[in-house]
């Protein structure tokens, strides 16, 4: 792989974030300052081009019963906005977690979903493909433009991969 290609797809990790346990990132992920990613009850495995903004918490909790510990999978092209929280749940591809949204333990978010600002999904919730979950708990079908969403995430990556290192100590992985 050429040096130029590596620069365009490196994962940018702010040194002001807390990453503990076995966490694996795909290419092109951005981890902003003040994020917490804790893999206590199993690995956390991220796909490509995930944007994780400030004060996001993603935790794979350790179960009291060690047999129930499992790896946590987060697909590609997901956007986790400021203050969102994900607790021991699997996340598909191209999802949008608006500010201060919260996903409790053992939820499953399929593909192309939006979890609205300040929405708290209760434990064990399953959100099917192309759904929007609003604060009033109304679930609606989403008209989703996959190519547009992917382009948006990649363009965010391109801008943030320049801006974050200018203002924060980082490491590329």
Question: Main attributes?
Answer:
single chain, 173 residues, alpha/beta, UDP N-Acetylglucosamine Acyltransferase, domain 1, nine-stranded mixed β-sheet, six-stranded parallel β-sheet, 2 helices, 21 strands, disordered N terminus, DCTN6, cytoplasm
CATH class: Mainly Beta
Radius of gyration: 16 Å
Shape by Cα distribution: globular
Low-pLDDT residue intervals, each spanning 5 or more residues: 1-7
Quick one: how many beta strands? 21
- Which structural class do you get from the secondary structure elements? alpha/beta
Looking across the biggest beta sheet, what order are the strands in?
Answer: 20-19-16-13-10-7-4-1-21
Element order: H for helix, E for strand: HEEEEEEEEEEEEEEEEEEEEHE
Percent of residues in beta strands? 25-35%
Kindly report how far apart the N and C termini lie: 14 Å
Number of continuous helical runs: 2
Specify the CATH architecture: 3 Solenoid
The helicity comes to 10-25%
Task: Give the oligomer, counting copies of the same chain as homo and different chains as hetero.
Answer: single chain
How many domains in all? Answer: 1
Would you identify the CATH H-level superfamily?
Answer: Hexapeptide repeat proteins
Summarize the structure.
Its main location: cytoplasm. The chain is 17% helix and 31% strand.
What does this structure look like?
The chain is an alpha/beta fold and 173 residues long. It has a single domain, classed as UDP N-Acetylglucosamine Acyltransferase, domain 1. It is built from 2 helices and 21 strands. The strands form 4 sheets. A 9-stranded mixed beta sheet has the order 20-19-16-13-10-7-4-1-21. Strand 19 and strand 20 form a beta hairpin. It starts with a helix and ends with a strand. The N terminus is likely disordered. It is found in: Cytoplasm, Cytoskeleton. Its main location: cytoplasm. Keywords: Cytoplasm, Cytoskeleton. Part of the dynactin complex that activates the molecular motor dynein for ultra-processive transport along microtubules. One of its GO terms (molecular function) is dynein complex binding.
